[in-house]
Specification:
It contains four helices and no strands. The chain is mostly helical. The protein has one domain (2-73). α1 (2-25) packs antiparallel against α2.
Length: 74
Amino acid sequence: MDHAIDRLKTFLAAELEWLREEWRDGKGGYKKLSDCPSYKACKAYVDAINVLVKAYYHQEYVEQYKCRSVKELI
C-alpha cells in the first residue's frame, strides 16, 4: 500500500504547484482558495491518501502519516 500512497503524493505535489500558481497570480480573481480550479483535484488526492493511510496503518499511527489539508499544504 505504501507504493500507492507514495505515488498519489507525487501527483498531489504536482497539482499543488498548479494550485499555488493559480492562487498567487491572482488573474482568475479567486476570492478563496477553494475557488481555484486545481483545488478540487488537490482535495481529492488528499482525501484518497488519507483513506489509504487509515486502511493501511494501525490506528495509533494514522495521525502521524495522514496528509494535511490542502490549505495547510499551500
